[in-house]
User: What shape does this take?
Amino acid sequence: MPNRDPRPSLASLFLAFANVGMLSFGGALAAWIRREVVQRRIWLDDNQFLSGYALSQLIPGATNVNLTVFIGTLLRGLPGAVAALLGLMLLPVGIMLAIGALYLRARGLPGGAAVGVALTGMGAVAVGLNLGMGIRLARLNIRKMVPAAVAAAIALAIGVFGFRLLHVLTVMIPISLLLAWWRGPEPRA
Amino acid sequence: MIVTLLQLAGVFALLSILAIGGGAGVLPDMQRAAVAHGWVTPHEFLQMFAISRAAPGPGSQIVVLIGQKAAGLAGAAVAFAAMFGPSSLIVFVTARFWHHAEHTAWRGLVERAMAPVAIGMTFGSGLALMHTTEHGLAAYGVTLAAMLAFAFTDLHPLAMLAIGAAVLLAAGA
Assistant: This one.
C-alpha cells in the first residue's frame, strides 16, 4: 500500500459498510461497496478494488463478505476488518432474525399458506438470479473451450449428478490448475 | 442443545471453506446437510433462501435462519460465526500478500484456474436447487424468466422477487 493512503476511522468504516448492508436489497452488494468505497469516500482506487474483488471470489466464503474484510484489512488491519464486517452484517442479521421469527410463527396462522406460496415464488426467482449470475460471469470470464468444459463438468457433477461439493472440488481444482498451467497465460487483446 | 450447536458449527464451518466463488455454490450441500440433520425440510430451505435474498445484506445470511430454526438465538449466532469466521480469517491472512502479488505469474495462474470452477459451481447450485425443492411447472417458468431477466436486463432483483411471488399466487399453486 502506498503511504498516501487515507486511514479512515473505525467508526467511519463501520458506517460506510452499514450503509452498504442496508442499501443492498436483493443482492448486487459489490456494486454498492464500490460506490461507497471507491466513488464516494475515495479510500481505494479501482485497481485496488478489483484486486480485492478477484481475491474475494477465489477465496472460499461469501464474495461480498470477503470483499468487506479485504477492504477493512487493507485500510485499518484487524480492527478495520472487524469494524467493516460488523457494519455490513449487524443490521441485516437483526432484520433477518426478526423476519425468521415471524416466518416460523406465520405458518400455522390463517393466511400463512398464502405467505408460503408467495415465498415459494420468491424462492424460484432467487434460484433464477443465481443462474443468471452464472450466465453473466461466464460471458465476462469464459471465452475458450477448455475453461468452458471445466465449468460445464462441475455444473453437471453438482447440479445433475448430485455429487458432493467436497468431492467435486477435490478432483476439479487440481485439474483446472493443471489445465491453466499447461495452456499458459491468455494473450492480452 | 449443545450437540445441535456443535453440529451447526461443524456443518457451516466446512461449507465456509468450500464456498469458492461465493455462498451460492454451497447451497445444495447446505440443503442436504440441513435436511439430513432434521433442521429444515427441502421446501422450508427454499423459502428461507427466498427470505435471505429479499432481505438486505448478503444472501448467505440464510445460515442465520437455519441456525435459528434449529436452536434458537444461540443457533443463529453459532451458524453465523461458523459460516463467516473461517473464510474471513483466510481473507485477513492473505489480503496484503495478495495485494503485493498483483503482477506475478502464480496469481494469474490461480485466477485463470479458479474462474471456471466458480462459474461451474454457480450453475450447478442453481440446477440442484431446482430439482431438490419440489419445483412445480409455474416455479420452473419463474426461475427461467428470472435467470434471463437477471442475465440480460437491468431489472432490479427486488422487482423480480415481487413478480415471482405474484405469479405463483395468481397461478394458485
